[in-house]
Amino acid sequence: MKTTAQSLNEELGTDLLAQLSVDDQREVDKLNDQIQTLTMENRSTLKERVRVRRRTLLQCRSTLLQQCLQRKMRSSKTHVFTDSNAISCSCRGDDSY
């Protein structure tokens, strides 16, 4: 066990790529390129997911605001109609005097 630890400590800080064959070094480079590509794709996917989530939240908020506005408009329309009828009735009552 001590020899393994000693061996690993000696390898610390050494250039491991230099110890690989040319083919193995190419394979490591290829794997590093794939890792870099996948990392970029992952970041791009995450950004897209955040963008879609924001858009969905904005659409939801917009729908809620539209519904609220429609309720208020219906309520206002009802009040205007009621007030208009009341004024109309009171005006007719005044004409009969």
Give the topology.
Blueprint: H1 2-11, H2 22-95
Structure description:
The protein is an all-alpha fold and 97 residues long. It has a domain at 23-87. Helices cover 87% and strands 0% of the residues. The protein is built from two helices and no strands. The model has no long low-confidence stretch (mean pLDDT 88).
Please tag this protein with its features:
97 residues, mainly alpha, 2 helices, 87% helix
Give a brief outline of the structure.
The protein contains 2 helices and no strands.
Portion in beta strands: under 5%
Which word captures the global form?
rod-shaped
Q: What oligomeric state is this?
A: single chain
Low-confidence stretches: none
Largest sheet descriptor: none
- The total of helices stands at 2
Distance between the termini: 117 Å
The beta-strand count equals 0
Radius of gyration: 38 Å
Element-by-element helix/strand order: HH
The pLDDT mean sits at: 88
